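Subject: for your reference before the review

Hello V.,

The reviewers asked for a structural picture of the protein, and I figured it would be easier to keep everything in one thread rather than splitting it across files. Below is the amino acid sequence we used in the manuscript, unchanged from the supplementary table.
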Amino acid sequence: MADRLAVDIGGTFTDVVLETAGRRVTTKVLTTHAEPADGVMDGLGQVLKQAGTDPEDISVVLHGTTLATNALIERRGARTALITTEGHRDVLEMAFENRFEQYDVNIDRPKPLVGRRWRLTVSERMNAAGNVLTPLDQEALAALVPRLAMDAIESVAVGFLHGYANPAHERLVRDVLSDALPELSITLASDVCPEIREFERFSTACANAYVKPLMSRYLADLGDRLNAFGVGCPFLMMTSGGGLCSVDTAREFPIRLVESGPAGGAILAARIAEELELPRVVSLDMGGTTAKICLIDDGEPLLSRSFEVDRSYRFKKGSGLPVRIPVVEMVEIGAGGGSLASVDRLGRIQVGPQSAGSEPGPACYGRGGGHATVTDADVVLDLLDPERFAGGTLVLDADAAGSVIDRDVAQPWRQAGGSESVDAAAHAVAEVVDENMAAAARAHAADWGKEIAGRTLIAFGGAAPIHAANIARKLDLDGVLVPPSAGVGSAVGFLSAPISYEVVRSRYLRLSEFDADVVQGVMAEMRVEAQAVVAPVAPGNLSESRRAYMRYLGQGFEIAVDAKDATADGLRRAFDVAYERLYGRLIPNLDVEVLSWTLTLSGGRPVVASFGGSPTAAASPDVGRSGVTRVAREDLATGSELAGPATIVEDQTTTVVPADFQASVDAHGNVILRPRP
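And here is what came back from the structure prediction:
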C-alpha cells in the first residue's frame, strides 16, 4: 500500500496521520496560528521519523483546516467589497427580516462581512427567468474601478438580483475588473452559489470573497513547502460536504472548506457504523476548542445545503452568518478541552464558548495559560496521564491546573455557597461541559425528528473519549465505541473520503407542469461542471447522485429528495416518502414544486486497511495517583475486558471507564464501553 498522509488543522491541535506499510503513524502538534503551515511541516517531520520513511514515498496528501472558519469568526479576512444591483445594497443588512430570539430586545445580529461603504451598486436587472430587463451600466461600473484601487480593496464579491438564472452581467463585471485590476480577487455569486434567495446567495459570495486571498496564499505556501520537502504527490482538500477536491478548486471556492475537519470525523463514524452494521449512531468529535455532534442512520450522515458560521447567541439558529454550501449536518458548540470555566454572578459554573486555544492553551500546558479550562479540570481529576499527553510532547502541570481551578471556580463557587473542594469544582466543570454536549445532542435530534436514546456513541478527538461515557449515561445510549487512533479521528476520516463535488442549480417547475427537457438540460449542465472538477483527480468510473429540493405549493421551505428517477411520477413518489418520513403525514390534493437541483459526482471510495490489531495477551495495569486503574491501550488484547473505574491511555487521547461501566476490545481494535448490568 502506498503511503498516504492526512492533516487536520484544528483550533488547538494539528493532527497528522501517515498510513504506511500496514500501520498508521500519528501525532498531534499545537496549531501555529500565525503560520499554520509550520505546524503541518512539524507534524509531517515527526510521523516520517517515527515511520522511518521518506517524503518521496507519500502518494497523496489529504488536508482539512479550520483556517477559513477562524478567519470568518475572528474577522481576519481580506478587505472586501460587494457589487450588486442598484437599490439592493442593504440585502446583507436586512437579512431575513426576522428575530431569531423573539423575546430578547437586546439581541445583536452578526455584522455583515462587508460594511455599507463598500457595498457598491450599478444599474442592471434580470427577471426570475433570466431575461434582461435593464442592461448593465458599464459607465457606472468603470467609475467603481478607481474607488476600489484607491482604498486597496483586495477582494470583490459580485452578486446581482436573479444572477443564478442568468450570470451574464456578473461575468461581464468580472471581465472588466480583471482587466483593470489584475491582482484583484473576484468571486461571482453565480459561481459559488447559483441558487434562489438573494440574502443567502450574497452572504455566501461575500464569505467566499472574504477568505479567498488568505486561503489562496496559505494553500500556495503549503504546496510550495511540501514540494521543497520532497512531497511531490497530489494534494487534495477535504470539503464540508464529506468529499475531496483539488487544491485549485479549494482556492477558488474556499467557503466549501469551513467544516472540512468535522466532516472527516463524520465520514469516519459513518464507515465504522457501516462496517459494524450499527443502524443508529451519534458521533462526538470533541477537540480542544469545539465539540461536533452528528446523527448517522444506516451508515449515512445527514446532509444539508445550509450552514451558519459563528452563531453569536447561545448557538441559536439564525444568529450566525449563513452560507449555502454542501455540508454534513451537525451541531457544533464551544465545548472542548480548552473551553474556559468560570462562575457567573448567580454562582453558576459556566463552561465555554471561549477557549484558551493553543496560544497559550490551558494552564496545565505550562505555556502561560492563566485561566481554568476543561482540560485543567480533567488533570485535577487524574483522568489524564501527565507523561503521555499528546504523545509526550506536552508534560502536564497538575499543580498549575489545580491552582487555576481553585482560583477561577472553587473560590467563587465557595463564596456563592458551593463546595469548598477543588476536586468537587473540577467535577462540576466536567459535569457542566458534559451536560452542554448532551443538551446540544438532544436539541439536534429533535430538530431533525430523530430519537437520540438507544444509539451507539462513536467518540473521537482528543477530549471526546474522556467525556463519552458520562454523556452516554445522560442520553440513555446503548454504549460507546472508541476507534483506534481516536485522538486524530477526523484526519483518519479523510483517508476514507471519496473524491467528489456537488453542483447546484435553481430551476423552478411544478410537477403538474413537468418539463422533462428542462430537467435533462439542467442535469447535463451540472454534470459537465462537476466532471471538470472531479475527472482530473479521480480518473476512471464516476458515480452520480441527484437530489431535488421540493415542497408543497405555497410552503416556505423545501426538503431534499432523491432524484434518481427524475420523472414527474418518480419525483412525486420520492417526495411523498421523504416528506412522510420527516413529518409523519402527507397533504392530499396539493401540487408539489421543485426549486433547486443538485448533482454530485464521485470517484470510488478508497480502500482503507484496518489498523486496529491488538496483542494476544494483556499487560499488567498501572495505578494513577487517585487509585484508578490505568492501562495503555496498545497493551489491551482483543477480547479483553476491563471494569471501571479505569482509564485507557494512548498517545493522543484517554478513554475514561467510569465505575458503572465495563470496557472491552473487539476484533477491530475498537474499545467498547457499556453500562455494567
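For the response letter, the relevant points are probably these. The first strand starts at residue 3 and ends at 9. The radius of gyration is 26 Å.

Happy to draft the paragraph if you're swamped.

O.
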